[in-house]
Amino acid sequence: MTPKSSNYETMKQAMAQTFSSYDTGAMIEKFHLQHDAAYLYLPLLGRAYRIDRRSGQVSWSDDGFRTSTEADYNVAMTLYDVLCCSEPDCHLAHTWVNVRSLARVQGGTLEKSGDFFQGAGRMFSGKADALARRCQALQGKKLDQGDAAYQLDLLPFLPLQLVFWEADEDFPASLQFFVDRNTLAYMHYETLMFALSHVLDRLQAQA
């Protein structure tokens, strides 16, 4: 579900160059980021990422950055948007809302994302137990809802919840995402869809 075309790669590289023009010191203070002279460090879904303060390149590692891999488009654009474009006083409302009903989303955007949510449900149809195990592998906190439900830390300061219902005689399988009511103060709606696509990619990748 990660875009791979050259156009997306071009957009990612353009945003990396734009990132380098921002005040990384302000980002560190705003989000309490770990950092050194060369990098900002920020985990996403429990995986370690770093952003080069000069080039803007985003990379991830599972071995303390002894080795690293360039981040894909969805992750890079999520981090760029949060760090560069979030509202100055962004904060959690501590009220959960369905992603599809965010008050600030315009109708046309939601219409385009309908297939995304339908596909997410089909992806795990008949696999509630497997979904639960994969959420646990991402350090998810179990919730008492649906057939499988977990809270995940998209970012250390920005959680999300997913709730899965298996299909029955009346309805197809459904995977719904819930986020804090103020999530769009941290990122644009389009970016949130990138982030949710990455969540699904990670869930699919868990053995």
From TrEMBL:
Domain DUF3786 span(s) in chain numbering: 25-199
InterPro entries membership: DUF3786
Pfam families in alphabetical order: DUF3786
The protein's name: DUF3786 domain-containing protein
Organism of derivation: Candidatus Avoscillospira avicola
Species classification: Bacteria, Bacillati, Bacillota, Clostridia, Eubacteriales
